[in-house]
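// run 5 | inverse folding | seed 20
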């Protein structure tokens, strides 16, 4: 679920598929790519799987890493939630255009805009109009941000929130929407989200190790690492589990990938087919299914989802037209998206990992100059808060808190994205402006308090 500053990032374009299935990398070539990345000190381990026709490739690299190692898969969870919704539609238990309010606890108020309610389809396609994160997400521990976000907080947010756009009008990626969808589907059946997935997806596909660490329960995943290579705690989930709670293994995920590439045979074929259908057009090459993203170029369509938590990254990509699927799981927060795409098409170039950044120690008096709110746009504020003696935190409106690392007394960088900030002072020496640096551009945010 990563996540990142919405105004600052754009999804990297997917390599254009060709009309004929491209050749695929040899096992030795894949092994070399994986070994080069795990050799990086900030990537402790990677597992890779590929299905191409009747052939299956499995690779694992890193100490203590194998096909049975549990990884957090982050937002790939949304693909499972989408398949779950499709399964319930196929069974006649819900309809895509049912208002989500119909399947929430009695008395729950769900915001509307211009008389248009938020439906299950809107949630699954990120067109609900809900923000990426709820504004009452205020965890006790930002290293485990969803653990204490429970049903009461979710219901309270919905009751107070006003939509800024009509449901169904436009695409805006929303972890909140994915979590609300899982919450609603579970309430419809009377089962927990985890139990519903186990009965409807995990058991039919023999996914025996897949699940998630609920609040108050220890996680069984291998230790994750942020993009600086620092060990970080596991993530736990409560009401928003449908957005990113799942952890899984290479073996289990290959079972899910095999089912996703074949929408004709198997116990979930009808649900898979419905979940991958084009539901909302984003632009000329991108559309959204139920929980899946779709990228079409040159007559070929890739069905995919990536994922990220505090210490893990994942990528699942399926090419139904060539009966191929590729999977990457890593216990590092550095992106593995291109590696996943390259498993299916060698024309996708896997870039080198970004070089490690150097930090400098700053005294408490210097760090204390910067915490404040800085307004970048009328509805977009960047909050800077202390992070002990190590640096600062940055949190943008409606988004997750991120770590800032000092590279000088006035400059800090974000480890999760290729962006940095610097601070400027006024004539009195007071810090007055935050400057955001990304993609060659500079944006200034004025200090408010």
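// decoded
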């Amino acid at each position: 679920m990563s996540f990142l500053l919405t105004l600052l990032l754009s999804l990297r374009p997917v390599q254009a598929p060709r009309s004929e299935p491209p050749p695929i990398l040899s096992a030795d070539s894949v092994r070399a790519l994986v070994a080069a990345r795990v050799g990086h000190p900030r990537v402790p381990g990677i597992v890779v799987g590929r299905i191409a026709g009747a052939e299956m490739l499995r690779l694992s690299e890193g100490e203590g890493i194998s096909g049975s190692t549990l990884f957090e898969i982050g937002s790939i969870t949304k693909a499972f939630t989408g398949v779950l919704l499709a399964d319930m539609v196929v069974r006649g238990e819900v309809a895509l255009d049912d208002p989500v309010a119909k399947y929430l606890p009695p008395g729950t108020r769900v915001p509307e805009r211009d008389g248009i309610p938020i439906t299950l389809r809107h949630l699954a396609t990120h067109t609900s109009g809900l923000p990426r994160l709820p504004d009452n997400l205020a965890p006790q521990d930002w290293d485990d941000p969803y653990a204490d976000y429970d049903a009461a907080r979710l219901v309270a947010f919905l009751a107070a929130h006003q939509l800024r756009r009509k449901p169904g009008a436009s695409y805006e990626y929303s972890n909140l929407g994915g979590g609300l969808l899982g919450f609603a589907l579970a309430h419809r059946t009377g089962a927990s989200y985890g139990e519903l997935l186990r009965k409807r997806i995990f058991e039919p596909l023999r996914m025996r190790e897949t699940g998630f660490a609920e609040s108050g329960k220890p996680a069984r995943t291998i230790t994750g690492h942020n993009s600086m290579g620092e060990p970080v705690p596991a993530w736990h989930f409560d009401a928003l589990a449908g957005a990113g709670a799942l952890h899984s293994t290479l073996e289990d995920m290959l079972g899910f990938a095999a089912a996703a590439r074949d929408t004709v045979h198997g116990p979930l074929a009808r649900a898979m087919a419905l979940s991958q259908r084009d539901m909302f057009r984003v632009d000329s090459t991108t559309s959204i299914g139920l929980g899946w993203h779709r990228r079409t170029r040159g007559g070929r369509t890739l069905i995919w989802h990536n994922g990220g938590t505090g210490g893990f990254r994942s990528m699942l990509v399926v090419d139904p037209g060539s009966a191929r699927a590729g999977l990457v799981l890593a216990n590092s927060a550095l992106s593995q998206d291109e590696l996943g795409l390259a498993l299916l098409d060698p024309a996708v170039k896997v870039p080198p990992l970004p070089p490690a950044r150097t930090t400098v120690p700053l005294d408490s008096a210097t760090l204390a100059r910067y915490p404040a709110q800085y307004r970048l746009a009328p509805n977009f504020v960047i909050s800077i808060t202390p992070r002990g003696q190590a640096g600062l935190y940055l949190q943008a409106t409606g988004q997750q808190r991120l770590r800032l690392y000092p590279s000088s007394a006035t400059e800090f960088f974000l480890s999760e994205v290729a962006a940095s900030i610097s601070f400027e002072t006024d004539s009195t020496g007071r810090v007055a402006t935050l400057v955001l640096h990304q993609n060659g551009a500079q944006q200034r945010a004025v200090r408010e308090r």
